[in-house]
């Protein structure tokens, strides 16, 4: 029987994609960029997401000069907009402030957490920036819901490494056979759970087709289905 449920955070409990989009639109509004210019906004957003992914991966893999999330954002704006360097810095600060204070839940997440809280220990393992993850949990009024919150930049290790799961298990005081991990990423979450020998529930939010390479113990398309999965396992 499971004694704890551990969640990935972005696009599992919180809708990262919506938070990112909303924060960017507010940022550009505040700086009076692309106001009522939908075509230019769409071209910018396509360019920005491409550059931001590149700079984020370089940051994660310690490639190049990106030593902080601020530098990742400045570089992303710089590569997407032909502006003065100080404007890139201002845009970066505005965006980061909005993002850290924005919390959109995945459908059903609040109800699932409300149901699980009195019955299980709850944890989070997230590849992310601690200040953003912790602030967003606080904005959503769910920070105190979790007995363990492990964020990669604090831990010094990232999913899919086994070590980040070991930290969570130590904080929860449980063995790997006593927890279920829930996440939306096959690269980080599925392989991380396998490395840690922890049961994995794949939150297939986009209803993607899985190849035979992936064999999660459970698959749910909506978070509410998780309650059925856990109930059946723990009967």
What can you see in these coordinates?
It holds the Pfam family HAD_2. InterPro entries: HAD-like_sf, HAD-SF_hydro_IA, HAD_2, HAD_sf, PGP-like_dom2, Pyrimidine_5'-ntase_YjjG. With 235 residues, this protein is of the alpha/beta class. It has two domains: 4-15 and 104-233, HAD superfamily/HAD-like (Rossmann fold); 16-100, Orthogonal Bundle (DNA polymerase, domain 1). Helix content is 51%, strand content 11%. A six-stranded parallel beta sheet has the order 3-2-1-4-5-6, sandwiched between helices. Strand 2 (121-126), helix 6 and strand 3 form a beta-alpha-beta unit. The longest helix has 23 residues, at 38-60.
Round the mean pLDDT to the nearest integer and report it.
94
> Strand share of the residues?
5-15%
CATH superfamily of the largest domain: HAD superfamily/HAD-like
Point out poorly predicted stretches.
none
Strand order of the largest sheet: 3-2-1-4-5-6
Biggest sheet, open or closed, and with what strands and sense? 6 strands, parallel
């Amino acid at each position: 029987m499971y004694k704890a449920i551990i969640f990935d955070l972005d696009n599992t409990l919180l809708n990262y994609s919506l938070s990112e989009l909303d924060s960017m639109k507010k940022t550009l509004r505040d700086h009076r960029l692309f106001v009522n210019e939908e075509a230019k906004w769409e071209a910018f957003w396509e360019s920005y997401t491409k550059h931001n992914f590149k700079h984020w991966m370089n940051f994660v893999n310690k490639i190049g000069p990106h030593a902080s999330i601020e530098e990742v954002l400045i570089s992303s704006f710089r590569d997407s907009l032909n502006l003065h360097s100080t404007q890139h810095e201002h845009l970066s600060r505005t965006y980061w402030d909005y993002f850290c204070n924005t919390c959109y839940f995945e459908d059903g997440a609040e109800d699932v957490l409300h149901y699980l809280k009195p019955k299980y220990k709850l944890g989070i393992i997230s590849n992310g920036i601690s200040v953003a993850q912790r602030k967003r949990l606080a904005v959503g009024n769910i920070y105190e819901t979790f007995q363990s919150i492990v964020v990669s930049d604090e831990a010094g290790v990232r999913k899919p490494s086994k070590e980040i799961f070991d930290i969570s298990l130590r904080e929860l005081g449980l063995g790997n056979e006593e927890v279920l991990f829930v996440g939306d990423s096959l690269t980080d979450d599925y392989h991380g759970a396998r490395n840690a020998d922890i049961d994995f529930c794949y939150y297939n939010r986009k209803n993607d087709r899985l190849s035979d390479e992936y064999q999660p113990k459970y698959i749910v398309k909506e978070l509410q289905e998780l309650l059925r999965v856990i109930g059946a396992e723990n009967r």
